[in-house]
């Protein structure tokens, strides 16, 4: 290091910025890293073995499932005999359930398109899972907005008779109301937890809830003509 | 205990390397189960069982030599057959294994086809590709058609064989019922050869029904056809009283009188039962019509309607007009135009009108019909598709009234709705649907038929043969049926033959019924004199038959007309009358023929030449054969009976020319005491 | 302690093996178990260098990740391992494809097992990908500087769905046929170009032999290669974006946060 140019050895306390790895040390400065030091483990061999154990445990489970349950195979594909109901693979049954209520453009194109778009933009919109609890600031205003949105959504679902999606929505709204009435100092750990949940948490959880409920309904509760059946009734 | 577990856990999973080792071992062990499972497969188990069973048999060596291990299959790409059934059914081709009590090791019963030619599933259904018991035999997610129950197995023959086969009585009967009991009036059945199955029954036109019968009878009939005639093929529509009332109102109101039909009685109906019975018998009415006797048995044929209670049905005026000439009322009827004189009409009508059942209409009291009832009745008649079978003025025959059945035998079970407690298989569905069609839901139109269980099985068999395979068969495998021709004799004689409804019983050039002999080569077969006599006074040729040729009371002119036509037109080109004259055979030849008759060929097993000694009742009596048949015909018949009359029961004995000549000489010499004896009978 | 003795011996054998000329010619990192050598073992391997040489110990606990990403990779590996032998027995033509599936089930040794494992692993993978995504979201592990890796994750989610969806058709049975028909009809609903997309996807207006071939090529070639490409980037970005995510919401830090002063500091920092 013949060059005598000074470098500032910096410590940035903002954990969101890119990680600091390299420190240029000149004769006149010394490195000073204030970030908390954490225990680290060498990837080789510990992490690799742990990963291998995890993967192989899963493999053992899958092998046993495969030994005991045969993959479904039905009759030869026959375009002239439509099974009733004709079901898409299970992970699309949420979508197919929506198709039952909405026109294809809405349920088949707009909704999944919006979901994918939303998923992609999540990290760019400062959607912060560790932001403050939704109702901690501007409580009255936010509650009003919440009421309007929740009512509008429910009425919309009611108009289209989407009871399958309405019920989870109402349950979520109820839980959010509980959250709105909870304070961070509440003696109940659960209330404290609810109070601290930010908006992004609520939106994602609502989405997950709807996804699970709609997929489950499409998979287990739909029979001929997409009518409602109970899975244990043949 | 807890410490022990903890230390065990530490030992096995204490650090990641150990855990890796342990999990790897578990993983490998689990993986190893897959080939093990493969090794203990079902088919291997059965093959071991077979070898074990075979070991204790006397023919063990042969059987072991024939045995081939591993998965066996019959692969027939053009039929879409991959049958691995023989992997477990190892002994199918071993003729000695008939005594094995249970499957899968018993030998297959003898059939005309080879396993290598058709595989197994073509006939038995089931999943041929499967090598496990459940998948191969049962209805599963992957294969819906299970093994066909053995009682319907003849349906398999019907996939290729479109005509009737001597070995498939059930299939033949089923097909017959389909066309004879009117199924195909409502259900379209497109046969694999492209033709549409035609109904062979002839439901009467209802356009002039008021000429024939009363509204009360129509009402009673609609309510329960079998109460009037238990053999009736008219199904029961389970009508309510009001519906039956309105429908009868419409039918009577809709009827128009037909000229010549309601002619006043020209002869008073005679009430001489003995004379009536005698005329009824002489006319051989019973060849076509049945009457229930006191013991409850049906006596007579099933070509025409049952007459047990006919007196409660028909109006006397109509009956007489009908007996005089049935073609006035129904030009297409199968009933011959008997040339009955007024006296005979009176006797016969009196005899028939006495066949009445006062209970039948005792409880039927109908008010005069209102216009609303008639309108409602008309709607009901259209709704129930009455016009599918019957001609009704003002109502068109409905198109596609009932589901098409052309491929019913391949109908996916998933598209069927089953009754609770029913087996979920196609044959069960079809059988139950035939047995109790209305039980499948409200508002179904298919009426209740009165089939016997055997008939239901036959129908199911015939319907199961109408499947995808029968429609997609390689052309080389299809064995066509002889199609019904639309042959019509020409000229004056032709008109006469139609008038006498010859084709109701006889078949000529591929057209007509099968009750009486095929007359296609009749001109080559018989002697003219005999034919003239026969028309004037038909006797029986076959003692075992009840159904006989009736006497039509033809005039000499008519007899000549018919005889000339038959003798000139119905000639077989092979038969040369001159080659075998009716006389001039040496005594030696006759004697040789006699020896052959009783000795080498044992003809007396089926035929009678000497009424005192011979007991053959299956074939025609031959006591007068010399005055009936032409020598050339007899000779050719000896040589190859099937060539002259396909399907005849007479066996082909592959006779030498000499034998045939001698037998002909013997038979032609059997001129009997001819006509007189016949007349007595 | 016989076990330990044996392990030691095995370790010695292993060290000897790693000292051999052949081994050293294959692996660049050389012998020894020093930190450097262990780091080199990761860095100097074309596959392993996608991972960081060190991982925060906290992130190894089950609750931190539930190993969902690792398990997803595991199912992917199982799918490749079972998919290749399945390809040996499969013709992508109708209706031969169905007959081949039947043969796999009834004739091929362990063919049924292979197919089962492939099928169930595929379902497991779809499930794990979703689970992984939600876990990452709830931990907030998508934030700067990991935004792009999240986007790649979303791409991988779509790839997984496509892989599973294209594979669904291959048995050519009723289930496959109608599931694909129902699914592909949704594409027709896209305004203006819907029918074109539908046609392009199936190679025709309905699910037929063309669609089967198309789906086969996608399923066995294009999608797996693309997925591998993105998986590699996904792993590499984990390393480059600062290793497995560790943040204040995680258990260790949260314990520290119990002190209100620290919370104040953290807020200030934001």
Written overview of the protein:
The complex is a heterotrimer of chains A (234), B (681) and C (270). By secondary structure, chain A is mainly alpha-helical. Chain A has seven helices and one strand; from the N terminus they run βααααααα. Chain B has 681 residues and is an all-alpha fold. Chain B has five domains: 42-147, no CATH class; 158-200 and 403-477, Cytochrome Bc1 Complex, Chain D, domain 2 (Orthogonal Bundle), CATH 1.10.760; 209-379, Orthogonal Bundle (Cytochrome Bc1 Complex, Chain D, domain 2), CATH 1.10.760.10; 491-569, Orthogonal Bundle (Cytochrome Bc1 Complex, Chain D, domain 2), CATH 1.10.760.10; 577-680, Orthogonal Bundle (Cytochrome Bc1 Complex, Chain D, domain 2), CATH 1.10.760.10. Chain B contains 32 helices and six strands. Chain B has helices at residues 2-13, 16-39, 42-55, 60-66, 115-118, 121-124, 133-137, 154-160, 169-180, 183-186, 209-212, 215-223, 225-228, 241-254, 273-282, 316-324, 342-353, 371-383, 386-389, 426-435, 453-464, 468-472, 491-499, 522-525, 528-536, 556-569, 587-598, 625-628, 631-639, 641-644, 657-668, 674-680; strands spanning 74-76, 81-83, 290-292, 298-300, 507-508, 511-512. A two-stranded antiparallel ribbon of chain B has the order 1-2. A two-stranded antiparallel ribbon of chain B has the order 3-4. Mean pLDDT of chain B is 86; it is low at 674-681. Chain C has a domain at 65-242: Cytochrome Bc1 Complex, Chain C, CATH 1.20.810. Chain C is built from 13 helices and one strand. Chain C has helices at residues 2-19, 21-26, 35-43, 62-65, 68-88, 96-106, 111-138, 147-169, 174-188, 194-202, 209-240, 251-257, 260-269, and one strand spanning 54-56. Chain C is globular, with a radius of gyration of 24 Å. Chains A and C meet through strand 1, helix 1, helix 2, helix 3 and helix 7 of A and helix 3, strand 1, helix 5, helix 6 and helix 7 of C.
